[in-house]
Every structure is written in structure tokens, then in C-alpha cells.
Specification:
Blueprint lengths: L1 E5 L8 E5 L4 H33 L3 H9 L3 H25 L5 H17 L3 H15 L4 H33 L1 H30 L1 H19 L4 H44 L6 H14 L11 H10 L6 H17 L1 H28 L1
Antiparallel strand pairs: 1-2
Helix pairs in contact: 1-11, 2-12, 3-4, 3-9, 4-5, 4-13, 5-6, 6-7, 6-9, 6-10, 7-8, 8-9, 9-10, 9-12, 10-11, 11-12
Length: about 375
């Protein structure tokens, strides 16, 4: 909040800006956000440190010697497979934003994930960061909005479809255990039907977007400050439907390749740690893990994903120590490694952007 003081004598048109105290609601929202983030981090740490040993029956002292026996060649191969999965994901990202290169798509993916994993309301912060980066590359606000909507919808649909695809495999491979996953699969299918019907209807129909935007204008009118939900949603629908219509094959191919790489990564982690679980068990655990990443209870699902994935895997025969260590290794790659790598990528982009801004005036003058 800023207070302006003017010269009452009129001898000068200059004004002075004196910073005032921040508004009470803004301070309250900031502190509530920090408190929520702190609580979620504590919950994630507690779930990993306390609940995971309880679920698996494995103590941390048992994991240390087991981790020392994981071959370095396996670790190197798993890191390469993680990177291949990220590159496969850029097929979807470049399809969602025409003109986006694979290198820049990888930059968006890494930096957005790193921010989402470490900041309060990290998902929104990651989207805001990606918006700023894409704008500096010349993409329009409408194109970035369509990109954000389409990539998130494809991600959610892939995670909801997975249980429906896994259930028939489990019923054949492990009929005695598959029953415990039947209700979860049914619930996921029902949620998928509602989400898909609502989202796709709005994306496919200008009239639906217009009605939804009009409702938003009526409900949020006092906070919009002259802006229009209807206009924004209609423009977004037009851009989004055009992307889906022309790139749905590319979007789907990239998501299938990315999902397959993640499954192979989980299978590789469990193999490297000697978990001794079969492919059916890994399929079941992977389907549960994909759904749990949508929960958003903790940053990146920390703690929640580890416990849920370990519990699903241990519903099948296998080594408890190997399963616990394999789950931690998988999460270290898909969650932990993204933070430093994404942070370094962000630092590199900021340096490059700063240099380009400094060179711009000299180029313009020349």
C-alpha cells in the first residue's frame, strides 16, 4: 500500500511516495499461507520418517546397509531413465504451445516442478513462473493459458485412466489381491467421468464457456475490477480447443511415453533394491502413486505418496526392505532430484534473461 503526499502550495508537481503499512487482510493471508505450508512440510516429513517404517516394518537403520549395496551402474542408469522421461514429456508440452522448442519445454518442466516442490502454494507459483518465462520468449498470454489448461487436463486424465487400464491386468495376474483395489478403481472411473464430461464440454463448446464465464462474472463481479470472466474464458476456450483439435495425437503420445518411462523407472528402482515384487505389483503401486500425486496435501505429495505406494506394493509378496528402499529411491529421482536440477536451470535462465535485457538497448541504438 502506498500513500502519496503532494505540495499544497502548487509550486511543484512532484509527489513523494511514502510506503504505508501493509493491509491487514494481506498480512493475514500471507501468514496463513506460510502456516499452511509449514504444517504441510511437517506432515510430509512425519509421514516419511514415522509412518513409512510403521507401514513397511523396516527401520531406518536397516535401510542404510541395504542402500550401500545398490550398484552405481544401476543408479546411473536410473538417472538417465529419469531424464529420458522428462524429454518424453516435452512432446506433450511442445504440442500444447505451438512454437515452443523441446529445450524450452524442458526448462519450463524443471523450473515449474522445482518451485512447486518447495514453495507455499507451489503449483500456482510454478504456473506464474512459467508464464513469465514463456512471455519473455514471445508467446501470448492466451497461448500460455491454453498451454496450462491443456497440459494439466492431459496429466489428470492420464492419472485417472491408469487404474481403469490396470484393473484387468490385476484381475488376471493376481485375482486374490486385485479385489482390494477394485473400489479404488471404480471410484477413479467415476471421478474421471465427471471431470472429463465437465472439462471437455467446456473446452469443446463456446456456448458452455460463455455460460460458465457469465456465471463467474456474476459471482466474482466485485473482485474482477472491470475485467470479465466471460471474455477471458471464451478466448481461452477458443485457443484451447484449437490446440486440442490440431495436437491431440501429439499430446497423447507424449503423455503415454512419459507415463511408460515413469513406470519403467519405478520398476527399475524396485529391481535395483531387490524388492522381489512382480510386474503386477508394480502396476498396482504405480496406479496408486499416480493418483496420490494429485492429492496436494503436502508439497509434491511428500510423505503421502511414499506411504501409499509402499502400502500398495506390500499388498503383494516381496521384500519389505527392498520395497521401502525402492520407493525412497524412486521418490528421490522423481521429487527430490527435480529441486536442485530445476533450481540450477532457473538460475541459468535468469542469468541469460538478464544478459539479453542488458544487450537490448545497445542493439536498438545500433
Amino acid at each position: 500500500m502506498t500513500t502519496f503526499l503532494t505540495d499544497e502550495q502548487g509550486s511543484s508537481a512532484a509527489t513523494r511516495a511514502v510506503p504505508g503499512p501493509p493491509s491487514s487482510p494481506a498480512v493475514r493471508r500471507r501468514w496463513v499461507g506460510r502456516l499452511r505450508f509449514t504444517v504441510s512440510v511437517v506432515v510430509g516429513i512425519a509421514l516419511t520418517a514415522l509412518t513409512l517404517p510403521t507401514v513397511t516394518g523396516v527401520t531406518w537403520t536397516q535401510l542404510a546397509p541395504a542402500a550401500a549395496h545398490v550398484p552405481m551402474a544401476w543408479l546411473a542408469g536410473l538417472v538417465v531413465l529419469w531424464l529420458v522421461g522428462l524429454l518424453a514429456h516435452t512432446v506433450t508440452l511442445t504440442g500444447a504451445m505451438p512454437g515452443l522448442t523441446h529445450r524450452r519445454a524442458l526448462t519450463l518442466s524443471l523450473t515449474g516442478s522445482a518451485v512447486a516442490n518447495v514453495l507455499p502454494l507451489g503449483g500456482a507459483a510454478g504456473i506464474a513462473l512459467n508464464y513469465r518465462m514463456a512471455r519473455t520468449w514471445g508467446h501470448s498470454g492466451t497461448a500460455i493459458g491454453s498451454y496450462t489448461v491443456v497440459t494439466n487436463i492431459w496429466d489428470v486424465l492420464a492419472k485417472f485412466l491408469l487404474p481403469a487400464l490396470v484393473m484387468p491386468v490385476l484381475l488376471v495376474a493376481a485375482p486374490g489381491v486385485a479385489g482390494s483395489f477394485a473400489y479404488a478403481g471404480l471410484a477413479a472411473a467415476l471421478v474421471l467421468a465427471v471431470v472429463a464430461a465437465t472439462g471437455l464440454a467446456t473446452l469443446a463448446s463456446p456456448a458452455a464457456a460463455d455460460r460458465a464465464g457469465g456465471l463467474g462474472d456474476r459471482v466474482l463481479g466485485r473482485w474482477l475490477r472491470g475485467r470479465s470472466c466471460r471474455a477471458a474464458l471464451v478466448a481461452l476456450q477458443a485457443g484451447t480447443s484449437a490446440v486440442v483439435r490440431t495436437s491431440w495425437r501429439r499430446l497423447s503420445l507424449g503423455m503415454v511415453l512419459y507415463t511408460a518411462c515413469l513406470f519403467a523407472l519405478l520398476l527399475g528402482c524396485l529391481t535395483a533394491t531387490g524388492a522381489g515384487v512382480g510386474v503386477a505389483a508394480v502396476l498396482a503401486g504405480f496406479a496408486v502413486e499416480r493418483l496420490l500425486t494429485l492429492a496436494g496435501l503436502t508439497p509434491g505429495g511428500a510423505g503421502v505418496v511414499e506411504v501409499g505406494l509402499a502400502a500398495a506394493l506390500l499388498a503383494f509378496p516381496g521384500s519389505s526392505v527392498g520395497v521401502a528402499l525402492g520407493v525412497l529411491l524412486y521418490r528421490a529421482l522423481t521429487f527430490g532430484l527435480e529441486i536442485p536440477v530445476g533450481g540450477l536451470t532457473l538460475a541459468g535462465w535468469m542469468v541469460a534473461h538478464h544478459r539479453s535485457v542488458r544487450r537490448a538497448p545497445a542493439i536498438a541504438v545500433g
